[in-house]
Amino acid sequence: MTDPNYSLFIGAYDDETAAQEDFATVKALDDVSVVAAIVLSRDEEGKVSAKEHGGKVVGKGTGIGAVAGLVVGLFAPPLLLSGAVGAGIGAAVAGIVKHHEQKKIGVDAKEWLPAGSSAIVAVIDDKYLDRIDAAVEKSTKKTNKAIDKGDFDAVVKEVEKGDEKIAEAIAS
Protein backbone atom coordinates (compact mmCIF):
# COMPACT_ATOMS: atom_id res chain seq x y z
CA MET A 1 0.00 0.00 0.00
CA THR A 2 1.36 3.42 -0.90
CA ASP A 3 1.44 6.43 1.38
CA PRO A 4 -1.43 8.86 0.88
CA ASN A 5 -0.85 12.17 -0.84
CA TYR A 6 -2.05 15.09 1.24
CA SER A 7 -3.44 18.49 0.36
CA LEU A 8 -3.98 21.58 2.41
CA PHE A 9 -7.57 22.68 1.77
CA ILE A 10 -8.91 26.12 2.68
CA GLY A 11 -12.49 27.33 2.49
CA ALA A 12 -12.88 31.04 3.27
CA TYR A 13 -15.98 32.63 4.82
CA ASP A 14 -17.21 36.14 5.46
CA ASP A 15 -19.52 34.73 8.13
CA GLU A 16 -18.28 32.61 11.06
CA THR A 17 -21.68 30.92 11.38
CA ALA A 18 -21.45 29.60 7.81
CA ALA A 19 -17.95 28.29 8.54
CA GLN A 20 -19.20 26.47 11.65
CA GLU A 21 -22.10 24.95 9.69
CA ASP A 22 -19.85 23.68 6.90
CA PHE A 23 -17.36 22.45 9.48
CA ALA A 24 -20.08 20.26 11.00
CA THR A 25 -20.47 18.67 7.56
CA VAL A 26 -16.69 18.19 7.26
CA LYS A 27 -16.60 16.57 10.72
CA ALA A 28 -19.28 14.11 9.62
CA LEU A 29 -17.00 12.77 6.87
CA ASP A 30 -15.10 9.60 7.65
CA ASP A 31 -11.64 9.75 9.24
CA VAL A 32 -10.05 8.45 6.04
CA SER A 33 -10.64 11.63 4.07
CA VAL A 34 -9.95 14.26 6.75
CA VAL A 35 -6.60 14.00 8.50
CA ALA A 36 -7.03 17.19 10.51
CA ALA A 37 -9.30 20.22 10.32
CA ILE A 38 -9.97 23.41 12.21
CA VAL A 39 -12.02 26.58 11.96
CA LEU A 40 -9.83 29.66 12.26
CA SER A 41 -11.40 33.06 12.84
CA ARG A 42 -9.72 36.45 12.74
CA ASP A 43 -11.42 39.26 14.60
CA GLU A 44 -11.50 42.88 13.47
CA GLU A 45 -8.29 43.60 15.43
CA GLY A 46 -6.49 40.76 13.63
CA LYS A 47 -6.35 38.24 16.51
CA VAL A 48 -6.66 34.68 15.24
CA SER A 49 -8.43 32.00 17.25
CA ALA A 50 -9.01 28.29 16.72
CA LYS A 51 -12.72 27.69 17.13
CA GLU A 52 -13.14 23.94 16.55
CA HIS A 53 -11.16 20.97 15.44
CA GLY A 54 -11.62 17.47 14.15
CA GLY A 55 -9.81 14.60 12.54
CA LYS A 56 -6.80 12.69 13.68
CA VAL A 57 -3.31 14.11 13.55
CA VAL A 58 -0.54 12.15 15.18
CA GLY A 59 -2.35 9.51 17.21
CA LYS A 60 -4.84 8.94 19.99
CA GLY A 61 -5.34 11.67 22.53
CA THR A 62 -4.12 14.43 20.27
CA GLY A 63 -5.66 17.68 21.40
CA ILE A 64 -6.56 20.97 19.84
CA GLY A 65 -2.96 22.14 20.25
CA ALA A 66 -1.68 19.47 17.88
CA VAL A 67 -4.52 19.87 15.40
CA ALA A 68 -4.23 23.65 15.42
CA GLY A 69 -0.45 23.49 15.28
CA LEU A 70 -0.54 21.17 12.30
CA VAL A 71 -3.08 23.01 10.20
CA VAL A 72 -1.86 26.48 11.15
CA GLY A 73 1.73 25.35 10.64
CA LEU A 74 0.89 24.25 7.12
CA PHE A 75 -1.52 27.12 6.43
CA ALA A 76 0.57 30.08 7.58
CA PRO A 77 3.29 29.54 10.18
CA PRO A 78 3.62 33.28 10.90
CA LEU A 79 0.14 33.06 12.47
CA LEU A 80 1.64 30.78 15.10
CA LEU A 81 3.90 33.61 16.16
CA SER A 82 1.54 36.54 15.60
CA GLY A 83 -2.09 35.98 16.43
CA ALA A 84 -2.90 32.30 16.76
CA VAL A 85 -0.80 31.33 19.75
CA GLY A 86 1.42 34.24 20.65
CA ALA A 87 5.16 34.50 20.78
CA GLY A 88 7.56 32.58 22.95
CA ILE A 89 6.26 29.02 22.78
CA GLY A 90 9.58 27.54 21.89
CA ALA A 91 11.44 25.42 19.42
CA ALA A 92 8.39 23.66 17.95
CA VAL A 93 7.01 26.83 16.40
CA ALA A 94 10.47 27.98 15.36
CA GLY A 95 10.95 24.62 13.64
CA ILE A 96 7.63 24.90 11.79
CA VAL A 97 8.39 28.46 10.67
CA LYS A 98 11.91 27.51 9.58
CA HIS A 99 10.63 24.53 7.60
CA HIS A 100 7.96 26.73 6.00
CA GLU A 101 10.51 29.35 4.98
CA GLN A 102 12.78 26.72 3.46
CA LYS A 103 10.06 24.81 1.61
CA LYS A 104 7.49 27.54 0.91
CA ILE A 105 4.60 25.43 2.15
CA GLY A 106 1.36 27.17 3.10
CA VAL A 107 -0.58 30.05 1.61
CA ASP A 108 -0.98 33.79 2.14
CA ALA A 109 -2.89 34.18 5.40
CA LYS A 110 -3.87 37.78 4.66
CA GLU A 111 -5.65 36.67 1.50
CA TRP A 112 -7.42 33.69 3.02
CA LEU A 113 -8.03 34.97 6.56
CA PRO A 114 -8.46 38.75 6.51
CA ALA A 115 -9.76 40.61 9.58
CA GLY A 116 -13.40 39.78 10.33
CA SER A 117 -13.39 36.44 8.50
CA SER A 118 -13.19 32.72 9.14
CA ALA A 119 -11.75 29.75 7.30
CA ILE A 120 -11.91 26.00 7.44
CA VAL A 121 -8.36 24.76 7.09
CA ALA A 122 -7.97 21.02 6.60
CA VAL A 123 -5.34 18.46 5.75
CA ILE A 124 -6.96 15.85 3.56
CA ASP A 125 -6.10 12.79 1.54
CA ASP A 126 -6.01 13.88 -2.12
CA LYS A 127 -8.29 11.03 -3.12
CA TYR A 128 -11.12 12.74 -1.27
CA LEU A 129 -10.82 16.34 -2.48
CA ASP A 130 -14.27 16.09 -4.04
CA ARG A 131 -15.87 15.17 -0.70
CA ILE A 132 -14.36 18.18 1.05
CA ASP A 133 -15.20 20.49 -1.84
CA ALA A 134 -18.83 19.41 -1.66
CA ALA A 135 -18.91 19.75 2.15
CA VAL A 136 -17.90 23.41 2.18
CA GLU A 137 -20.73 24.67 0.02
CA LYS A 138 -21.17 27.95 1.94
CA SER A 139 -17.58 29.14 1.48
CA THR A 140 -16.96 32.28 -0.53
CA LYS A 141 -13.79 30.82 -2.06
CA LYS A 142 -11.78 27.63 -1.88
CA THR A 143 -8.30 26.46 -2.69
CA ASN A 144 -6.12 23.44 -2.17
CA LYS A 145 -2.41 22.93 -2.33
CA ALA A 146 -0.49 19.67 -2.46
CA ILE A 147 1.65 19.00 0.59
CA ASP A 148 4.91 17.15 0.12
CA LYS A 149 5.02 14.09 2.41
CA GLY A 150 8.34 15.29 3.82
CA ASP A 151 6.83 18.70 4.62
CA PHE A 152 3.84 17.09 6.31
CA ASP A 153 6.03 14.74 8.34
CA ALA A 154 8.34 17.58 9.40
CA VAL A 155 5.46 19.73 10.63
CA VAL A 156 3.91 16.76 12.48
CA LYS A 157 7.29 16.12 14.14
CA GLU A 158 7.55 19.75 15.29
CA VAL A 159 3.94 19.72 16.51
CA GLU A 160 4.61 16.54 18.51
CA LYS A 161 7.51 18.33 20.21
CA GLY A 162 5.44 21.32 21.22
CA ASP A 163 1.86 20.01 21.49
CA GLU A 164 1.40 20.92 25.15
CA LYS A 165 2.87 24.42 24.77
CA ILE A 166 0.88 25.07 21.59
CA ALA A 167 -2.33 23.95 23.34
CA GLU A 168 -1.62 26.24 26.30
CA ALA A 169 -0.89 29.20 24.03
CA ILE A 170 -4.05 28.70 21.96
CA ALA A 171 -6.13 28.49 25.12
CA SER A 172 -4.72 31.77 26.45
UniProtKB/TrEMBL annotation:
Top-level taxon of origin: Bacteria
Membrane spanning residue stretches: 79-97
InterPro entries assigned: DUF1269_membrane
Keyword terms, alphabetized: Membrane, Transmembrane, Transmembrane helix
Designated name of the protein: DUF1269 domain-containing protein
Species this protein is from: Microbacterium marmarense
